[in-house]
Amino acid sequence: MEKDQNNILDEVTNSEYKYGFFTDIEMDTAPVGLNEDTVRYISAKKNEPEWLLEFRLSAYRNWLTLTEPSWAHIHHPPIKYQDIIYYAAPKRKKELKSLDEVDPELIETFKKLGISLEEQKKLSGVAVDAVIDSVSVKTTFTDTLSKYGVIFCSFSDAVQNHPDLVKQYMGSVVPSNDNYFAALNSAVFSDGSFCYIPKGVRCPVELSTYFRINAANTGQFERTLIVADEGAYVSYMEGCTAPMRDENQLHAAIVEIVAMKDAEVKYSTVQNWYPGNKKGEGGIYNFVTKRGICKGSHSKISWTQVETGSAITWKYPSVVLMGDNSVGEFYSVAVTNNFQQADTGSKMIHIGRNTKSTIISKGISAGQSNNSYRGLVKVIKRAENSRNFSQCDSLLLGDKCGAHTYPYIKAENHSSIVEHEATTSKISDDQLFYCKQRGISTESAIGLIVNGYAKEVLQHLPMEFAVEAQKLLAISLEGSVG
Amino acid sequence: MLSIRNLKVSIKGKEILKGINLEVKAGEVHAIMGPNGTGKSTLAYVIAGREGYEVSEGEIIFKGRNILELSAEERACEGMFLGFQYPVEIPGVSITNFLRTAINEQRKYRGLDPVPATEFLARMEEKKQLLELQEKLASRSVNEGFSGGEKKKNEIFQMAMLEPSLAILDETDSGLDIDALRIVATGVNKLRRPDNATIVITHYQRLLEYIIPDVVHVLFDGRIVKSGGKDLALQLEEKGYEWIRNES
To answer: Is the CB of B61 inside 8 Å of chain A's CB atoms?
Structure first.
């Protein structure tokens, strides 16, 4: 822990995007553009059953009828969907049984990212399903997990080995026609993670997936499905970095979570994709649909996210509180610097009785960026005695950035209580001088103050992530004041 | 330790300090007294390197070096400490984290490795006992929700932790009850060493019953108009600032 704290300080002095390197691995790619043949190509490549191809094709046809949403507070040049390569996978020459068999270049990439699979395996007790460009290369800890009956594998493997579970739950939380980007994902998703925790099992390790966008002009369309059966518990972590690129890269993922009776799912994200340069050129376009459903009574889904990357973030992790007494939580820190744009928040849909939801959103804007909170709290008539508490704070650094809050509240009964609090603040000169007078540099002082501001959210992250997140916050705001 | 020569400072064109001369040697405690609005806090801020002040003339020599070109954090790393009159709140940042960051940044400046966690915690405990602090300071956020007295005690605690060569305490006594006043004074006295120095800025004579200064200066209208031994403070208390006003 101490070493980590020191590393934070050290890394604050390295200003350029740290993960901007590119791995040269032989690729197997689909032709440029999107049509029914592309969808069939992907499905065939992955040796999918007929029903999944049908799912994809129907999503594709739906997508053709939809239009890009325009309500978000973001601006970007039109995305040329026909210029994108929809499938790229490292060529797999043979089955991999140990790390020795993994492409050394790939191992090198992980090392640069500080994610040595070996170390992860030995030291931290974290099972890693590493996704590089669409196809899972290596899954660890599967044996340990299988002892508990936990299934944790790539989405493709799940399709092959657990088709019934996939068929039952895929699209049950985010239907393929839910929105423009969800439809696109449903048509062309490449790979992702699948996780099933059987009844009464408390998953013994934190599950994590590292995504990485790697091939030029290749959109990434991951799909994650997590199902926690009755009384099950799982903590799932997702962290991402991407190499530096000049052209914008589209990213449209779907995450679906199902929590049955008494189940609990904790989903944590640290998102650090390439945000573009200081002039606002390049960077990832991140249009994600994340939603969970508390299907059974007394179930709980908790989203925690730290968003520091991407040129554009469009993301509203939501919870549908269907079961009585179910609980939904959303804890978010979103940082925007330079020309980044974030439109993010949450949706809490109260359907069951005595349901409870909490939204804590901390936006931090610097440079000429725009940071918007957008949230919906909906309590339907039968969701009696439900409660929501929302707190949306904005912290501004400098005077060229913007912070916006768009809360939508719909309460349809009288026994429920919905509360919304919002504040906007700045880092004061007094605070900065106080820190500097103690010998703390401006950069470190901002890191310190911002981390203090975001503490309420960061404390919900698993330890390994909390440290990384603290570093990220400091790094993301370098050069934003002074 | 500190040598200020003919220091002239203005804020937004208005001259506040009109030629300050001050000589502080290692091992000494100096008191700077004076009525409100005579430039006491300005002097403290300028020595500490706060931005927004125009130094038109003069120099500040700290440990043999003109520090006017140094940033506030560099001056701190050189061993200067300012106890604030109004310590600012930093929500969510624990005192432990804050102090460790400060100490490690200062160590880095001096080319030292970060302080090991156990050593740091031991030092926290030692200084707490030295200052007879009962509060569970470590886990609280810096000054957040602190009473006036707690804030001032926290300043002295930070001073004890950072072990500066020169500490400037700006109105550290204002708004304190006798108990807090005693702790602040005890801290200053206990931390006093032959190789460090303290400048106590105060409006009242009261603090000087607990901290015995070697030299007392009276600051009036941007100038030090009178300097003397500890008796000067008593005279001031007796005769009031009117006495100085009439003399100057």
So the answer is: no
Nearest 5°: the CA angle A451, A457, A461 is: 100
Domains of chain B in sequence order: 2-247 (3.40.50.300)
Tokens of B162: 């950072």
Report the DSSP pairing between strands A192-197 and A207-212.
unpaired
pLDDT band at B138 (very low <50, low <70, confident <90, very high): confident
Count of other CB atoms within 10 angstroms of residue B85? 20
Nearest partner of B30 among B17, B43, B11, B15, judged by Cα: B43
Cα angle, residue A289 at apex, residues A286 and A290 outer, rounded to 5°: 115
The answer to whether B149 touches B177, Cβ cutoff 8 Å, is yes
Predicted pLDDT of residue A212 = 44
Chain B nearest-CA distance from A236, in A, is 26
CB A269 within 8 A of CB A305: yes
Question: What is the rounded distance in angstroms from the CA atom of residue B199 to the CA atom of residue B184?
Answer: 14
Give phi and psi for A157, each to the nearest 5.
-60, -40
Residue A206 near residue A435 (C-beta atoms within 8 A): no
The dihedral through the CA atoms of B173, B176, B179, B184 has a sign that is negative
Supply the Cα-derived Rg of chain A in whole angstroms: 21
Which among B48, B88, B105 has the least Cβ separation from residue A440? B105
- Please check the confidence at residue A144 and state whether its pLDDT lies above 80: no
Q: What separation in angstroms does the CA of A9 have from each of A15, A17, A336?
A: 12, 16, 20
Q: Please tell me which of the candidates A2, A436, A452 has its beta carbon nearest to residue B93.
A: A452
Please tell me the pTM assigned to this model: 0.81
The full length of chain A comes to: 482
Residue A23 Ramachandran class (φ > 0 left, ψ -120 to 50 alpha, else beta): beta
Q: What percent of chain B lies above the pLDDT cut of 70?
A: 99
Q: Letter for the amino acid at B80?
A: M
A vs B: CB pairs below 8 A: 85
pLDDT of residue A133: 44
pLDDT of residue B9: 95
Q: Per-residue pLDDT for A247 more than 60?
A: no
Tell if the CB–CB gap between A434 and B71 is shorter than 8 Å.
Answer: no
Q: How many CB atoms lie within 10 A of CB B178?
A: 9
Residue B201 in 3-state DSSP? strand
CA-based nearest residue to B188, from B166, B216, B205: B166
Contact list, A434 vs chain B (CB under 8 Å): 84, 87-88, 90
The contacts of residue B128 (CB under 8 Å, 6+ apart) are B137, B157
Cα distance between residue A366 and residue B216, in whole Å = 47
B145 has a chain A CB within 8 A of its CB? no
DSSP A154-218: EHHHHHHH-HHHHHHHTTSSS-TTSSHHHHHHHHH---EEEEEE-TT-B-SS-EEEEEE--STTB
Least Cα distance to A283 among A314, A253, A310 occurs for A310
| Cα–Cα distance, A122 to A335 (Å, whole number) | 33
For residues A30 and A85, give the distance between their C-alpha atoms in angstroms, rounded to a whole number. Answer: 6
